[in-house]
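Hi R.,

Here are the chain sequences for the assembly we discussed:
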Amino acid sequence: MMEGAPDLNSFKETLKTIRSSDLPHDEKILRLKELADRAISFSTGKEKSIRVQLLMLANQCISDIEKLRQANPQRSEANNSASSEKKGASNVELKKNKQNDSPTFSQEAENYVRNLHPLISSTSFDNIAGLAEVKKIVITQIIKARENVELARMFGISGRNILLFGPPGTGKTSIAQAISNKVQYPLLTITPSDILDNRFGEFEKNIKYLFHGAVLNSPIIVFFDEFESLATRRTSSNSSYMKRAVPEMLRQMTDMRKQSESKVMIIAATNNPWDVDDAMLNPERFDTKIYVPPPDVFARTELFRTFLGGLKVADDINYEELGSLSDGFTGADIKYICKRAAEEVFAEVVDKNEIRAINQDDIRRSIEKSSTSVNSDLLAKYAKFMEKFNI
Ligand SMILES: Nc1ncnc2c1ncn2[C@@H]1O[C@H](COP(=O)(O)OP(=O)(O)O)[C@@H](O)[C@H]1O
Ligand SMILES: [Mg+2]
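And here is the predicted structure of the full complex:
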């Protein structure tokens, strides 16, 4: 199938030729796209070192295209809307220009993201207890900034990338979901295992697919959960693929930010922000870093109301008391406390064949049996992190 396909040098020559040509702007973009796609499809089945070089070359083409688009945004936009109304227009163009049937890089990237099933979340801000301060920042900096692009620009607010950090189970994932629900952008949740791949070059390729595919599937929110395992601080003991993948992520994020009109939002969440690579914490990547603290007594009271709501509970339940008895527990802990109490009462009811409601003592006992997720040492670590980054 690859018979007569050009070798690496001829790809490089072609790139050079396109770069130095005085072809019209749109034509140049088209040629670069074609070359990138050919380099990608040609790279399959090649020996590793050639494969990586081909992928790098494709990436160069893509960044050239982005530069050209920035230099001349009106024209490329006009070109896009003229060639097709729908997004994904570029794929159609590319298909026409291809000599073989293997999918183009853009098509692969678009499908890659689609197969990870981005979905608009049904969780809303109303489902999140407490966190008034966090909600306020998210709503003004992110949501209002997106609704008032010009105004936000005047005040230097980008409304783009957010890093959420704080103890496990405090609602970081829920916030990402609520943002998706509010702006009605599908949420693409990426956990490290979705894209980690220790075969040579595969991890980087997945990252490229992910970012490129996100643009093609925009509007979209890319949500990196457990971010510390993905953008791990580079140390001498890191695996070599991590050492290459982090720079690739950095590069992609920088490129993404340059596309000022992009409808791709990036949210990352981590329990251990101190393990995240320093370059990633730079304001150029994440200008909004938000601490998601454990719930205060009022939020805990509300959480008990939420998680016992709809269950068969006795009249003696005193939510305020439960709130004050549960210092140091997170939302996830409280959910578990309620679940365990309910399970125990259910077991008893089934066993004795005698129905009764969940009462205050059941919950108290469940609290006593649980250990807190948050302690002062952990909170001090977050405080230190915030001091270091001026948050
Ligand atoms: N403030 C909160 N309000 C409502 N539910 C919460 C809150 N904090 C945690 N939870 C619940 O606890 C569980 C874990 O929350 P999650 O958002 O995944 O936490 P994190 O991402 O910070 O680890 C979820 O089921 C969520 O419903
Ligand atoms: Mg989570």
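The beta strands are 162-165, 187-190, 220-224, 264-270, 288-291. The chain has a mean pLDDT of 85.

Let me know if anything looks off.

Best,
T.
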